[in-house]
Specification:
3 helices
Amino acid sequence: MANGDAWKESPRGERGFTLIELLIVIAIIGIIAGIAAAQLRTAPQRAREAVLKEDLFAIRDVIDQYFADKGKYPESLDALVEEGYLRRIPVDPITGSEETWQTVQAEATDEDTEGAGGIIDVKSGADGQALDGTSYSDW
């Protein structure tokens, strides 16, 4: 029996995939590709939001360190750079500018007259909402 004879002896239905099997595989690949495309569409925005959260955390941490060292809050973000607490003011990844940071000033109290007047918090000046539905300015 030659190799060609074995091919001829097999029943016609066993030689390959049926049309239904091929359609099912193509449908599964299409579903997976659709899910991947949806995830890739929001990936750059999620990355910018992650950088914004990290920058806000770092600036707030530096403000706390400044207060712990000096007993008062910094007058500006530039003061943090001048005093060596930051190398530079980070760029807001949503707006693309370091000029859009919104600062929150400390309120004066009778007990803490030295701590008043400086920056107690910083927020993003970006308009719009994050992917989770919150406003960037609320972070």
